[in-house]
Amino acid sequence: MRQAVRFLFGRATRRRWIHLILGGALAMPYVLVGQVIVGPALDARYVFYDIRAQLLSFAVGLPLAALTAALFPLTRSLEAGAVRALCGVAADRLAYDPARGRTARGRTAAWFTLHLGLGGIIAGMTLAVPPFAVVLILLPVVALFGPHLLGGPDDPAWLVALAPVGGAACLVALAACAAVAGTLLARWAPALLGPTPADRLAAAEERAADLAVRNRLARELHDSVGHALSAVTLQASAARRVLDSDPEFVREALAAIEETTRRTVGELDAVLGVLREDDAPGKAPAPTLSADLDGLLRRTRAGGLRVTARVDTETEALPPVVSREAYRIVQEGLSNALRHGGDRVTVDLRIEVADGCLDITLENPLGSASPCRPGGGHGLRGIADRARLLGGTAEAGAADGVWRLRVRLPLHRTP
């Protein structure tokens, strides 16, 4: 019993009732247009008083409503907002973008027609049934105190006595119709106002693009900040060990730390600039082989890493995107050597162009430290991602006591 009362008069039912009445209000302009069409066709002078003309006007107005919804894509956004607020439909089951495409427009037109059709019926019942029910409920009082007011003085007494029951039944029937209509609309809303397959595909593409941006941001921050922290840590460690015996080396290490940290702060802004892909004034350019390879090697050597570099190509002639990604790959390769190669390790770096590709090779002997951190890291994965985005390949591994990283980047591909 409680569930029945809640279904008929609960908060959700009342809100859906309001939604239906709003549909009836929206239907009125279309009904008026229908009257303009139906009135001359039936030769009816007073269409408003002719129930048949009213029903025909309503029937003519609904196709006009469907046409309106199909021509104005924003209808779906407005209806979805109303359904979410008044019908209790979960927000993630509705589409809030304007309807694009034939399928989305067709579904929106069907929903709008359904909303206005059921809304017009329930709104009309809401206007007509309560006054009629009140008259029935008060009928015994009128018969008792003013029998001359009744239209049928010969009506049986039992019929007059049961009139209040009939009036209450009318009100319950009205509530039941509104509850059923509101429930049906709430059930059909996700199918008609929800995302179409094209909408889901567009949303999936947007999520994939957002994920790609996030992954790229993670790679850039890992390579830039991670390398700087590794270099600064080793520079500080080396300076601490020779603090008393080699003051000149300590001064050089501190100067390298200062330069590394200052440059990294600028690179953070450059990283965000790369992700935004804008050229706004004041943005530091992303580091490239042609712009900062020598500086990268100098700062790495200041941390105690011995680096021999052989560059057999003009780095200025490389495509900017290849030069930028190659710089990050070299930076991450040197960072791995700093972290895992052992004390005073020697790294051999070779950069050359062969067969239309830029080849980057880093080799260093395996030291006492493990070449991989416990639990693994993201550096090699980031290198592989960068190479793959350019259509290249990346290989890394240990063989014969040597850790080797080799990357090939096609010069004719861009991400």
From TrEMBL:
Transmembrane segments: 20-42, 54-74, 112-145, 157-186
InterPro entries membership: HATPase_C_sf, Sensor_HK_TwoCompSys, Sig_transdc_His_kin_sub3_dim/P
Reaction catalysed by this enzyme: ATP + protein L-histidine = ADP + protein N-phospho-L-histidine
Species name: Streptomyces fuscus
One GO MF term: kinase activity
Limits of the Signal transduction histidine kinase subgroup 3 dimerisation and phosphoacceptor domain: 214-279
Protein name listed in UniProt: histidine kinase
Enzyme type, top EC level: transferase
Keyword Transmembrane: yes
Alphabetized Pfam families for the sequence: HisKA_3
Alphabetically ordered keywords of this record: ATP-binding, Kinase, Membrane, Nucleotide-binding, Phosphoprotein, Transferase, Transmembrane, Transmembrane helix, Two-component regulatory system
EC numbers for this chain: 2.7.13.3
